């Protein structure tokens, strides 16, 4: 269901507690990729440009939860944000307590502060209500713009908004867009609706397949997960990566697919190699993969038949690369699929790319800008494709 956004709230003079995802990659205390900070800028600017007092909260990495750890401080993010918005960003150096209360009390309209890493307290991961109440009393409005953490019941995601019972609770623009594409767009998809799944592990994607099978017209399976399905069909997979304990699940899904109207497409040919190595020469094999060889990408005939299906689709969801795209020899499958989805999008299809490795692949191969939506959350985006409801989103005010 659609949720109210920060644009629906008159924030002038109000204190807004905004949970963002500043969990950026760092090396030696320096941010190596600030895209997560950039992704929250629209919501941040919306509050400060209207004279709201913005209190930002985020986690970074996985600290012990027993207090300050220099490796996980959010101070570099405060500095980077300050550069991006061209104004000071206060950093009280704690998440709750006297220093934070004093910093918030001193805020003027349009000011921004960033609290210290919420995971410096064990209470954050525990979803502790008493701890959350201390954060909740800081603000008049709650805003969730942390899509990458939406599937987690952490205190700042769930207990804080719960403690703000009679105050407005809304989503930021990033979360609003993710919900619109990953959930609402798939409730009544324009047809044909094609789902492309790949990546390393079939076990990670089984719940998403089960949820999408009754909704989709085509499920195209590539990546290492295809070999578990081929095995379930009794086709030889040589030394390819197969999850033996998932073959039965794969067989069940193929049977279900056979009974319904969704067609499950498996690769008919492969790029294979003798060893799992970047410079191993790629050979093409059709059908069975002989012993001693492992499948590392879909083959040329599969590329073309998958591409043709995608070019005819009007809604496309893509999660998981078709092969070991990080290595040039085994990137052609992922490249061709990305190209076909990009072309389908220019012809009017809605294309939704899952986060994590698929977003990285789309970015690396240059297709990201051509897609309708590239999700910013790995785990959260997959759970949304599994049809799971997120408490952190459910409790926000409906539009
Ligand atoms: P996932 O995180 O499950 O989406 O998996 C992404 C990873 O799967 C990428 O790092 C790929 O290199 C890897 N991958 C894709 N196809 C294969 C394959 N056929 N064999 C081994 N790894 C693969």
Question: Can you walk me through this structure?
Answer:
- It is a single chain.
- By secondary structure, the chain is of the alpha/beta class.
- It has 2 domains: 6-174, Rossmann fold (3-Layer(aba) Sandwich), CATH 3.40.50; 181-385, Phosphoglycerate kinase, N-terminal domain (Rossmann fold, 3-Layer(aba) Sandwich), CATH 3.40.50.1260.
- 37% of the residues lie in helices and 16% in strands.
- It contains 15 helices and 16 strands.
- The protein has helices at 35-49, 75-85, 98-105, 122-126, 129-136, 155-163, 173-184, 202-212, 225-232, 247-259, 300-311, 332-346, 357-364, 379-385, 391-394; strands spanning 15-20, 26-27, 30-31, 53-57, 112-114, 141-145, 169-171, 193-197, 218-221, 263-265, 269-273, 283-286, 294-298, 315-319, 350-353, 373-374.
- α9 (225-232) packs across α10 (247-259).
- It is elongated.
- It starts with 14 loop residues before the first strand and ends in a 5-residue tail after the last helix.
- Bound molecules: adenosine monophosphate.
- The site of adenosine monophosphate has 16 residues, from β13.
- Adenosine monophosphate binds next to β13.
Outline the fold blueprint.
Elements: E1 15-20, E2 26-27, E3 30-31, H1 35-49, E4 53-57, H2 75-85, H3 98-105, E5 112-114, H4 122-126, H5 129-136, E6 141-145, H6 155-163, E7 169-171, H7 173-184, E8 193-197, H8 202-212, E9 218-221, H9 225-232, H10 247-259, E10 263-265, E11 269-273, E12 283-286, E13 294-298, H11 300-311, E14 315-319, H12 332-346, E15 350-353, H13 357-364, E16 373-374, H14 379-385, H15 391-394
The protein binds adenosine monophosphate.
